[in-house]
Amino acid sequence: KLRNEEIIRRKLHNQVQELKGNIRVFCRVRPTLGDEATHAAEIRFPNTDGESTEIEFVGAADKSALGKETVKTHPFQFDKVFGPAAQNEHVFEEISQLVQSALDGYNVCIFCYGQTGSGKTHTMSSQDGMIPRAVHQIYAVAQSLKEKGWTYRMEGNFVEVYNENINDLLGRVDDLDKKKHEIRHDPKEQKTTITGIETVVLENPQQVNNILNHAQNTRSVAATAANERSSRSHSVFILKLIGTNSVTGQRSEGTLNLVDLAGSERLAHSQATGDRLKETQSINRSLACLGDVIAALGSGKEGAHIPYRNSKLTYLLQYSLGGNSKCLMFVMVSPMQAHLSESLTSLKFATKVNNTTIGTAKKVVKA
Ligand code: ADP
Ligand code: MG
After folding, report:
1. Among protein residues, the one whose CA lies closest to atom 12 of ligand 1
2. In terms of Cα–Cα distance, which of 12, 64, 80 is closest to 330?
3. Is there a contact between 263 and 115 (Cβ–Cβ < 8 Å)?
4. Ligand 1 binding pocket includes 33 (Cβ within 6 Å)
5. Quick check: CB of 87 below 6 Å from ligand 1?
6. 352 annotated ligand binder
7. Helices 274-298 and 340-354, packing angle to 10 deg
8. Which tens digits make up the pLDDT trace of 296-320?
9. Quick one: which residues bind ATP (predicted)?
10. 22, 323 in Cβ contact below 8 A?
């Protein structure tokens, strides 16, 4: 009987997936590092047989109305859940189809959302992360498509959105925060360009290492002890794939956007002043706006207003989020008890992003 219930539950889950269209949310919990293990939160993975989609945080003691200590369980469900043992290699396997669809001309956005220290950069922009893995995979698949007549041009950009300004992470370090870059949309072609930024044409996949190193150098120069720059800005790796087929004459153009978001932790406004306050406000606003945009897209309402223009990040990604685009958000969580409250906030944000069409989905399932 239990087995049947499990099968029904999965079937329903899959139907919900189809109805949700092109938006997915994956959750990843990083492992404890060093001596952190003694202060870890209690985290459960209820259905660990096969594909895991559920995660439960066992909450800190809550004072009930009677003053008794109660412990709450906070269950969440996502399209996939990666526990602390999952390696980047395994995580990439689950996104490689999505990544490859950029070769077929799709626009794809993959985001890492979570508080500082939750594993966003490890997952996305480290030398072992999704960015280099995606480049290698795409290059390999492009090679194999040669026998079908396809040749691809691979163009890379790497920018940062900081305080609602765009900086070129592949440009000169001295230009950071000084050189102005504008977003230009071509509505007819549905194409976006950023003025004055460097484009790297990737002739081989190893070049991605230079790109990552250059970007990291640029950012570390701009960082100060009081201002951990990379946590306070969004980084966007943009890979444009322009394909032409010498046999059929077909053309395709797809863009893969890999986004390492600013830390989602809520800084108390009272603590922040001056530049720090400005940073905090622009991060809060842009993350909220991203959530609103994805939620509006996922609501499936025809003709719904999508508030792209409310932040630089969503404005930049406008043509890669709407229409026929595909979107995946990783919600990253820390395994630490001390971070429980931030983790729950992140998971709730991601649930909001994820569940937008569940209401409609349930109706269809009944019919
Ligand atoms: P964020 O970018 O969200 O601030 P990081 O990616 O820098 O977080 O991760 C914080 C620390 O945890 C780093 O030292 C990183 O190497 C480590 N870390 C994160 N995720 C993992 C993981 N899955 N396995 C091992 N170490 C990890
Ligand atoms: Mg980071």
Report:
1. 119
2. 80
3. yes
4. yes
5. no
6. no
7. 40
8. 888 777 778 899 999 999 999 999 9
9. 114-121
10. no
Ligand having the closest approach to the CA of 30: 1
Query: What burial letters (b/e) apply to 138-169, b meaning 16+ CB within 10 Å?
Result: bbebbeebeeeebebebebbbbbbbbeebbbb
Beta bridge partners of 44: 56
- Please, which residues have CB within 8 angstroms of residue 140's CB and are 6 or more apart in sequence? 205
- Which of 27, 28, 29, 30 for mutating ligand 1's site (highest number of atoms within 8 Å of CB)? 30
Residue 146 in tokens: 């040669």
DSSP assignment, residue 103? G
The complex's ipTM works out to: 0.99
> Which residues on neighbouring strands pair with residue 37, listed in sequence order?
none
What pLDDT, in 10s, does the model give residues 32-89?
Answer: 999 999 999 999 998 766 568 999 999 765 556 666 667 789 999 999 999 999 999 9
Q: Is residue 362 marked as binding?
A: no
* Helix then strand then coil, % of the chain, to nearest 5: 40, 25, 30
* Ligand 1 touching residue 122 (CB < 6 A): yes
Measured from the CB, is residue 114 less than 6 Å from ligand 1? yes
Q: Which of 51, 45, 48, 38 is nearest to 93 (CA)?
A: 51
How many residues in total does the chain contain? 367
